Queue: 3 jobs
Job 1
Amino acid sequence: MLIAKRDYVASVRTKAFLVGLLVAPLLFGGSFLASVFVKGRPSEQARRVAVVDATGKFAAAVVDQIKQQSLRDGFDQHTGVRVMPPYEFEIVSPDASNPDAQRLALSNRVRDKELFGFLEIEATSVEWYSNGGGFGDVERWLARPVSDGLERVRLRELGVSGEQLNEALKPVPLESMNLVTRDPKTGLVVPARKRGMAENFAAPFILAFLFFMIVLSASAPMLTAVAEDKAQRVFEMLLASAGPFDLIGGKVLAAVGTALTSSIFYVIAAFALLQVLAIVGLAPVKVLPWFFLYLVAEVIILASLATALGAACSSTRDAENLKLITLLPLVIPLLVLTPVLQEPNGVFATAMSLFPLFTPLLMLVRQATPGGIPAWQPWVGLAGVVVATLVISWMASRIFRLAILFQGKTPNVAELVRWGVAG
Amino acid sequence: MAFHGASVEFDGVTKRFESVTAVDDLSLSIPEGSIYGFIGPNGSGKTTTMRLITGILLPDRGDVRVYGATSSSRQLGSIGYLPEERGIYKKMTVRALLRFHAELRGVRKAAAQADAWLEKLDLAKFGSSSIETLSKGMTQKVQFIAAAIGEPKLLILDEPFSGLDPVSSQAIRSAILELRGKGATIVLSTHDMGTAEQMCERILMMFRGKKVLDGTLMDIRDRYGNDTVRISAENAACLAGLPGVEQIRDLGQMQEIRMARDADPQALLRNVMTRTRVDSFSIARPSLEDIFIRIAGADSLVDRLEAQSA
């Protein structure tokens, strides 16, 4: 407990901890606001698109549909502020004799930024040529008006009038709803609420970010701190008064204390922010106990790993090289966060979140999604996490005991595993 | 487990590090309340033996008992340890560090004890200073206090005087003697044979992991007999090759001669007087340093004995 107290005080009293506590969310929030700001202020420059229509009958309708779509989507519905650049078009006659030369010439104009891209319309297909990049947002956006344009021409050829066409092809918005539930107190059916992007993605994402940030700040510095203490030969003197298990236990407990300190700060700050923004209803309150449970388990796992590996390092440079290994249980779940959130109850998301090293972060974000997950899964996940925590901290303490006085050379992975298993 | 007057007992203890045997079948008994000196060349196994006493290392074979308890049943906190490889938390203040070590050892009124020790070693005005701002000598004194605070029953000091100025050395020497006076057992490792001779009631010499000497200074000197003659002569060169002379060490103003077994110093004196004028002649017991060099020097006694037995 004394070692935990000393390490905890040493950790939270550093300027890095205090600065990190304030700067990390500012950076995150800043980058989020910056992306919103950039998205809300599109380039004023019009996107000039060339249309090469081999059929000679679709170009006008396609251009018309894109312009209409641009008018609908190009401005914020509430503020009227433009959120998408305007589109301009030039119809280019197809060069039937040498279509490749024409494509090359148009491609060069795209490269020279004269054109944003060009559409090539055939009887049964449409090709969009552009300089690429991004996530395919432009292609996804263009697909609908281009298809509408072609459908309108075809239907008109089949004798459907203009008014009938508008009626038939009128866009129908799709509302995303949560599931209907029954109130356990009143027994009445509670109508479903509309679900927005914020609920689908924002809450789980913010939760995942908070979790990542807190665990990272509590456990990542331990590897180099232990390696530094080892390099300065601090442990030998302590080992006469405290056993190696007391030492590693104290260090891990200090990391848990640090994580809980920053998490309480962030949770209070987040609730205050949601209150100010009057969206406190979006807070995933039900998963908060799980958040703390998983947080403690993840910090124990990562801090034990960091302490054991730090003790095995013969220099702080070695420790820097090993840092990524200890962070993999945090980094891999972050890398798969988007597919997991897109289908939180899919096989991939379920399997990944039941792998004990990934459970804390992935199960948590799945639990925070509006649809939720089957009730048994968090408990099974938690059981796996508890077992993993016990096994990893036990092995780490054995490695720590042997590695702490081992000077001169960093043991290899095989030696570490042997120490962890055989002691 | 009952214990009978020995604070530390080793019974056939061996400790290996891969292919290196650091401590080889070591048996010893350190009497309670004594100052017990560990001497031996670098790499002879002194530090490993000390780590075995503290329980930092466990023996591969044999038993280590401290106040009758094995490593697994030992109560932490009864041992104060100043390792040779010294390290302390440099960012802490002196007083906070000493309190931390005292509390780790379960000392009550840790703050008061820290202040008393700081006063005793003339560090009172540095109590609030960060360790990293102290000089090397002052840091060493703080480390000594960290090992000795709480007055542990057993205090293990690996080279406690190395790098200290004479005033600081004397302060620590007095503190050690005071602790011994209160009943503590002190295990002291040193390369300074003068310190070992002056302070230690018993001396253990290790060489290549084995015990080669263990006893009081008197016992050890007796064992090596009266085979040393110091002679100051006008023509020192004539001493070489005389019958009974096994080895000559030039001390500058005089020569130290190690006599061959059964050689008669009187016969040697008569022989020398026929060749040159003798200014002084004395028969002496070998110094601890001389014994050390005989055992561990280039012409190692151990090597010769091993060669003979082979």
Note: The first helix of chain B runs from residue 46 to 54.
Job 2
Amino acid sequence: MEAGLSAGRLIGHPVRRREDERILRGRTRYLDDIDPPGAAQVAFVRSPFAHARIGGVGVPDGLEGVFAVLTAADLEGRVRHLPVQGFEGGEVSTEGHPVLAGDEVRYAGQPVAAVLAESRALAEDAAELIEVEYEPLEPVLDARSSEVTMSRWHKVSGDVEGAFASAAHVVRASHGLPRLAPVPMEPRGTIASYDDADDLLTVWVSAQDSHRQLAGLANVLDRPEESIHVIVPDVGGAFGSKGAPGPETMLVAIAAVMSGRTVKWAEDREENFVASYQGRGMEADVELALDDDATIVAVRARIWADLGGYLMPTTAIPTHTTAMLMCGVYDIQAADVEIVGKRTNKVPTGPYRGAGRPEAAYFVECTVDVAAKELGIDPLELRRRNLIRELPYETALGWTYDSGDYERCLDLAAELVEPERRSDDERVVGTGFGMYVERAGGLFETADAELLPDGRLLVRSGSSPHGQGHDTTFAQVAAERFGVGLEDVELRFGDSKEVPRGVGTFASRSVAMGGSAVVQAVDALKQKCEAVEARLGRSVSLREIAVAEPGLRASARFESDLVFSSGAYGAVVEIERATGALRVLRLAAVDDAGTIVNPLLAEGQVIGGSAQGLGQCLVEEAVYDEEGNPTFASFVGYSLLTAAEMPPVLTAFVETPSPLNPLGAKGIGEGGAIGTPGAVANAVADALGGVRVDPPFTEDKLWRALREAGS
Amino acid sequence: MKPSRFEYRAPGSVEEALPLLRPESSVLAGGQSLVPLLNLRLAIPELVVDINGIAELDYIHADDGVLRIGAMTRQVVLERSELVRRRWPLLHQAVRLVGHPQIRTRGTVGGSVAHADPAAELPVALTALGARFHLLSPGAARVLGASELFLGPLHTAREPDELLVEIEVPEQPEGAGSGFAEHARTHGDFATAGAAAVVGPGGHAGIALLGAGPVPARADEAERALADGAEPPEAAALAAQGIEDEHRRALCTELARRAIEQAAA
């Protein structure tokens, strides 16, 4: 085909994001930009108590501008509780989150009633007048002391007891990562409208994909999927928090069905802080058994996850990920890992950038540094002695790492970061490393390729973007495989009636899974084009093929086992003696995400992920007071890093292609958030002469630790 | 995050504004604190008196060596004033630390003073400079010093029918230097602690701390010690000596030391 002659190699090139011009010029359409005339605006009545019994809900008469007030009683028989996803080998409670609270609230911020009014301001006015009788109950705020287990997973593999009994050294350490708020730039939101004649429910939702929303809505509203149309508009970030639909989305959808009105809920920042599911919130006791030559022979870990008041659909998933990654990048033959997910009176947790991986990396890497300190071995040397060197490798816990070169990553990180340890009257400086391996990809993803009448290529993707740059990277993949220029490829996402059923954008999976589906769909279409060309018996343009055989189309559903990205991070930090203030002087980020389709965007993901990892280290923490009230309901109580706090991030990629997909890609969306906390924590401990504290590394904590260190 | 219903008035002069002020009213200056408080329904006034149209309150000038700042002067105007930078550099140092440029473009000097956030930079700098605050009410006027005006967090001696119209800053001694140091979680965030210092020949010293108590506190003892020839670290320790929490005391001591050393340099 003639067009093929002009096309060059695009995979691996730092193509600038072609979606940015539209975004930067404000031509995007986010959920709140959609303004259906006459829509009822929703405000929720949310529990002011962390834990309470509800006596009753009183709705005064004559509320100004109010169409309806919905309570749990009104939804009786119309909606189910949200579904709960389990995981392999896990005992997971099946009790899901109610759409509206019935007789009990289990966290401050839980939706109790919904007001539908002419405007959001009137809805909020009315929400203040709804009388809810609460009988406050004692809140449970600590996972370790909670008596209610919502999920549990335990696995013993190899002779753990024997290994510990005969070990030359046993190292024990406890670590914790506090809860974080995801804080996407655009909060959540849903609009729903119902067409009675066709029994069609149309739902616009700010989400990470269309089909998981569709499945969730169908389940909770007990409607056939064919009767629901989900449209995901432009999405201003999610970091995991817009994966499975939450109770508010369900409420908006059922309210549209019940009222016959178009119903809109655009979440505000305060709601987003208190009611959007959070990340992290795990503590662990970790033990390593080492033999004479510092070989790690066994790991034992007991982990507590503070899951909050209910299991959201995917709340339990990160606990499994954490547990399964507790061997890290090390060749450890025996493992005994238990993770319990506890009910507390806080907003539920869920998958937030990293989703269980940063916790595992932090627990393992900090314990390795404790071992190095206790054994008097250089932490890099202890790591090198224990790294997995031959891949694929099946861990004691049962996952198969597909590819990687962990030592190369570590060597590069050490070289880039230029380790330092020094101390004077004013400051102490230390260096630390943190490695990671992450599960990425898995399940399936879809794409559909069509030759347009003008000879251009249209790709409909089951995977949809919310800031990752699919429109550029997927176009690079499609254009290169099809042999056309980038400008000849158009991508469509996010409309459940248009795109094939996909899985979504999370778990660092878009390029490996969605990109591979694009490869397969485009390759299949190309074969069809070549067949047409062969039939015509001469070299023709794509436009001529489109004329000769209109509507040429091919679709693909790509499935694969998990792929495992990996990396090594290094940090040099400085702590000021007088105040305890921490400054990260530089961060080295070395990631192996297999084949990199676009190094510019990949580096952007690393830097963004690192900023979130550093945020966790420096300032972020969702703190509840002793009554279980969130103290982080605004940016006064919850801080995010700014560009001014970002240290130089020295990035490098190691590319060991995955054997599991046609691109050789793994995943890069989360590495920065996973690798950074361990590296910074180990650097802080190095600067403090071995004294360990958990993030966030606030100046008061470090000032006290410095005094403890007596250095 | 929608405010509850309120009546809105936008007077064009101080004369028109004064009769509107009452206990149920809030004055809207730059709106950088009041608007979020309204949206969070932490402030639920019946009436919002928007004074952004009062041009007569927007000025910076120096008469007889005294700096006069109209209450509606935007923080960015203070930041860019050559007069202020040259003769009252402490204000320049402090205002640059207020929020972000977007905030300083709307935020006003008077609004920051009247809001009396204990984490705000300008009240602390004005306290160290010995500023005086002019309040007007229908038929009356009074002038208060910092210790009289600032009563507690978000709480001043301003009566509901009074409007803060001007901030007056006395002339600083010839050869005086100034310093401002603060600690914030992130750039542009609310300060967790800070210190402002003016040090001049002949024992002149003005020191005030941020985050050491509910209001900007003048550190009299430290000022006297400096006048008597104490070294900056010693004066700084005196400035922070009343703070109970050990770390906060250490933090304030260090920031006071930096501010004093910067002023004395």
Note: DSSP finds twelve helices and 14 strands in chain B.
Job 3
Amino acid sequence: MDLTYGPEYERFRGEVRAFLAEHWQPSGGSADVAAFRQAAVAAGYLYRSVPRRYGGSEQPSDVLKARVIREEFTAVRAPMELKSLGTQLLVPTLLEAGAEWQQERFIEATITGQIKWCQGYSEPGAGSDLASLRTTATLTGDRWVIRGQKVWTSFAHEADYMFLLARTDPDADKRKGISYLLVPMDQPGIEVRPLRQITGESEFNEVFLTDATTPADWIVGSPGEGWAVANTTLKHERAWVGDVAESDHLMNSLIRLARRTPGPAGRPWIEDSRLRSRLMEVQGYVEAHRYSGYLQLSRSLKGEPPGALGLTNKISSTNIAERIAAIAIDILGDASLLPHTGADLSGDVGPERWMYQYFGSLGSAIAGGASNIQRNIIAQRGLGLPRDPRVPEK
Amino acid sequence: MDFDLSAEQRLLEESIDSFFAGSFPLSRVRDCYDAQLGRLDDLGALHLSEILIPEAYGGGGGTILDVAVAAERLGAAVAPGPFLGRVLASYAITVAGSDEQRARWLPKLASGERRATIAVGEPGDRWSLDDLRMGGHRLTGEKRYVLAGDGVDAAVVVLTDGLALVDLGADGLTVTNTEVLDRTRPMVSLAFDGPDHERLGGGAPGAAAAERVLQLGAVLVAADAYGGAAKCLEMAVAYSQQREQFGTTIGHFQAIQHQLADMAVDVLPSRGMYWYAAHAMDCGLDDAGGFASLAKAHITERYVAAARRTIEVHGGIGYTWESDLHFFLRRAIFDRAYLGSPEMHRQRRAHSQLTQDQLAQANGHLARAK
């Protein structure tokens, strides 16, 4: 049992710290984020899996170095890779399955934020059962002609391009007739209508595709390979080892809220023994999540499969956010009757931010594969139960 | 970075598991309930209760994590006997005894010639040093829920101000057998009317040493609970693949799949918690005490929930005396209550975490002020 990173990685940590001290001023508003990212790429800290010719730092895969970088950057709140659908989902897909010209044209522009992407997967009739999607793409001359409707399309209103799944062979098997296409958003055949979310914001949209077109070679992989191509991306998502940073951040924010909010008898909530007990109950789940992550990390370093444990991360972190939200509205009391705004829980934020977290924590139980789908995956791939679940019939 | 068991620890797991699979199946655990348990010499031959005694005194010279790993596998097997009591007593003598006391006691405990247990709980749900009443020079009062059986003949008594050793045959000490819920853990109560005893002195100061003994107890109970809870999940999965209803095995039904998936999410991530709690004690880390409490509270509650859910998945057969499943639920309830409730342990962790946190904040303010 060894929770240290060892001398080699501690030396590396020293290098990262020295770099940050030189290039990043935590409180300085003048810091140029783009210039900082460029310096961080040059130093080999960001976009490590992206080749240098596409603007990455092309480093050998090293889970521990990646972790040290994340820890040190987060500690001084330095910006890391752009958090966008393009960098997180499309770029890994192009690196694995894209044609060389696609990589050249799109990767660097995406990771520098020059172009933005949205994801065209879900449809009104195809949510958890994504493979039943009905949007079609027909090759007509040198262009695909696309007809259908996408929904829950985050950031479609600001995106330059969409990566989408469409049915290109209506006669093939459900999963075999699907292709992965790249489509420009700025064209007459595409109409974006904002949808208002439960929080009141409009981050996601409906997208109507009425004879929208894209060039014949803007396809990733071959026709009919779209399901497999999309799954290469999902594989990266599933391999994600539970990161406890978000749970820690929420927990610390909740404790701050309990410290400064008056509770029973006018004393701060944090002094209430029933509340303390509830806080520690959630802390238990956070610690389980943390050390489960260390265990999975250690197994992956040794090339050992994590088993069912590796599939529990998403629900664990979703459950933690939900439990924290439940405690927060008890602390807020009547303030929970007031409207909510804004997502950031850093600093001494007011009750309105917590009501946002309350609603937002529901989103993570639905987005990126609903929790009930994840339960199927845990049961079938993790515990070895049958893959064809049935409903009892009388 | 290797947050995992060593090759030796994995071997230890395997050897314990193969012992139980081969010569100590659940049908023998059943003897605790339906017959006379008899002697546990074959289990004793694994020398698990002596892992933690330093090699110089004839023990296994193991780490806290080693003994915790053993506790997990014993939990998975619902192994009967006073293992917890024996480990804690020998640990108490190791950390708190004088050189002379260690030399006199540990070799005998290591060889099994003497067998000591630990006496902690007092009437009124008193388990923490703050709540205990017994202490001082002359020992009077009552200790309850003292693990016994399998030749235990002495007890280390946890007092508000330290630790004392008493012979169970001493004048002024009345030993009474207790009827218990979890019969894999036979217990006695001890009534003290000034019996002869010896204070452990020489090692760590009394109360601090007693605190460490209780910490180890929390870690080992958490480990036992993880072993039991993970075993429950395994049994529920196995049964759902075998029991047929509506023309197919019940594991086909999504309702069952989701119950089992939720059990997996609830139980499996908690293993690293008791590992870290043990590791923190081995390394003398500052958060060892609070973490042991948090792990004990969390994992024992997971065990109770998992045991209940497993019985539910088994349906009517799970509700029978003939099913082995109630061994696990009873053991889970023991783990939850013994050495203090989840509530008590969460309050302890709240005290250490929220106070530390406050200090850190105050230091932060200071640093900014400078």
Note: The CA atoms of residues 215 and 289 of chain B lie 6 Å apart.
